[in-house]
Amino acid sequence: MDLLTIHRDARPLIDGAPPVSALGWGMWRYHGDDLTGATQRAMAALETGITLFDTADIYGVDHADGFGAAEALLGRVLAANPGLRNRIVLATKGGILPPIPYHARAGRLVAACEASLKRLGVDVIDLYQVHRPDLLAHPAEVAAALDRLRHDGKIKAAGVSNHTTAQVATLAAHMPFPLVSIQPEFSPLHVDPLLDGVLDQAMERNLAVLSWSPLGGGRLLGGLDDARALAVAAALDAIALPQGASRAAAAYAWGMAHPARPIPLIGSQNPARIRAAAEAFTVAMTGAQWYAVLTAALGKRLP
Length: 303
Prior knowledge:
The chain is about 40% helix and about 10% strand. It is an alpha/beta fold and about 300 residues long. An eight-stranded parallel β-barrel has the order 1-2-3-4-5-6-7-8, surrounded by four helices.
């Protein structure tokens, strides 16, 4: 049977940091004042084998806690659990400054990173990513900021999020050290990276692919409201149900089966659901089943 490999091995990515796990934990919804609950969620991720903790300075801006809230909360957790910092790959992002909305010019990225370091309560960030491209910033300027941060020991590695292939290539041309990651939206409901060259470029340049919203913003768990989404859910269920697996596990596994080895960023803030994400490693899937999900996502037959 043509079974696909669901990549589960951690891989070295950043000098001086633990290997990056095949699953990551995204902290977009990480906020509040409950230190005990926040710690339990972080430990659930670690117990699941997740070493990649992905946050951003803007996380919290859509909650009452405000800009920087997710980083500040994680900083409190790290301070209360001194051994935790060295067990994780700490990733954060900067470059969004409401209401501009994007700002990576002059010293802005440097200032944003320094502010993140203070909120997180750490001396160095393992992976610092430009959250969205600032169309008014020359890539040489962005590269210079990242180089300064690395030279000053404030970051170990750099990557980008929500960049096109051309934007990645242009920035890389000005970088004095290689980019190590790209963070696109990628799920069975959002398959653009398969078709727009993002995953191809990641394999060409050996970029880690950090997939945000791997469950379509939670839509795959319920609330499906159109024929295409229902068809995708049915194709995933055809994989999951005979194996007693969840649709979420099948969705994670579907993305992880691609040879670019995308790393789904688990967005749940429920410890049980965070742990359940590891079920993705047990899902068996054929190439035909994988393409059936893609066909449903496209809403048309492949050529």
